[in-house]
């Protein structure tokens, strides 16, 4: 999975760029977070997912953890099925660390995502914990994104970030530096994510395209 995380991008910003995203050899886009699921939102997601599929791209959605606090499992099940009807086939939970630190919340959350898990649905979450048991436990049903991973690399997602205030103010990294860092991940691991904020174009760098093409020649997954 070569995933482009279009964090906080709008539909009108994403649609005209789908062809370029595909030409960069990404195979999946991740959009959101989405905080409401009214009819207009679902219609927009359907438009996006259908246009992404025409380009040969899977479309995933970031789900805020607040939904797990306010909806029961059957309401969640209905919500996820409704979203899948729009063409969304993967879901990302940004950081579940706060949930899994609380034993009661952790048990409820694990039950919920186990209930929501099914073969055609990709689930993944950011997990930052030193608890090896929890790392193993969650790796059995979701892909892990974080600083510590389960030993099976096919269950992990490794990521690089786009130019943002963090880079420009602290590390002073150039777009090219960031692209090379991401390219090194692509060469080493089967699942990668490139995080990109609105109005930055690091993801268009030729280095990223060439790194994707290189691994596709070795393994056209």
Q: Which sheet architecture does the biggest sheet show?
A: 8 strands, parallel, barrel
Looking at CATH, the homologous superfamily is Glycosidases
Number of domains: 1
Q: Identify the overall geometry.
A: globular
Number of strands: 8
CATH fold title: TIM Barrel
Helix content: 40-55%
Low-confidence stretches: 163-170
End-to-end separation in angstroms reads 8 Å
The neighbouring-strand order within the major sheet is 1-2-3-4-5-6-7-8
Q: Structural class, please? A: alpha/beta
In terms of quaternary structure, the protein is single chain
Strand content: 15-25%
Please compute the radius of gyration using only Cα atoms. Answer: 17 Å
- The CATH architecture assignment turns out to be Alpha-Beta Barrel
Summed up, the helix count is 11
SSE order, one letter for each helix or strand: EHHEHEHHEHHEHEEHHEH
Topology:
Blueprint: E1 2-7, H1 11-14, H2 18-23, E2 28-32, H3 39-54, E3 58-62, H4 66-70, H5 73-85, E4 90-93, H6 97-100, H7 103-116, E5 122-126, H8 132-139, E6 143-145, E7 156-161, H9 165-171, H10 175-188, E8 192-196, H11 206-218
Helix pairs in contact: 5-7, 10-11
């Amino acid at each position: 999975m070569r995933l482009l995380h279009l964090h906080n991008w709008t539909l009108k910003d994403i649609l005209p760029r789908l062809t370029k995203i595909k030409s960069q050899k990404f195979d999946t886009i991740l959009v959101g977070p989405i905080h409401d699921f009214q009819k207009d939102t679902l219609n927009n997601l359907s438009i996006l997912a259908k246009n992404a599929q025409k380009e040969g791209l899977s479309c995933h959605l970031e789900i805020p953890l607040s939904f797990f606090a306010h909806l029961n499992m059957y309401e969640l099940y209905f919500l996820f099925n409704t979203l899948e009807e729009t063409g969304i086939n993967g879901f990302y939970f940004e950081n579940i660390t706060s949930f899994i630190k609380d034993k009661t919340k952790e048990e409820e959350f694990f039950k919920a995502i186990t209930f929501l898990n099914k073969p055609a649905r990709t689930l993944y979450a950011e997990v930052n914990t030193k608890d090896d048991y929890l790392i193993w436990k969650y790796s059995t049903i979701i892909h892990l994104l974080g600083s510590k991973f389960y030993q099976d690399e096919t269950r992990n997602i490794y990521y690089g970030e786009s130019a943002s205030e963090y880079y420009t103010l602290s590390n002073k990294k150039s777009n090219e530096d960031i692209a090379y860092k991401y390219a090194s991940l692509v060469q080493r691991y089967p699942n990668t994510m490139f995080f990109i904020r609105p109005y930055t174009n690091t993801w268009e760098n030729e280095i990223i395209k060439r790194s994707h093409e290189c691994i596709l020649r070795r393994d056209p997954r």
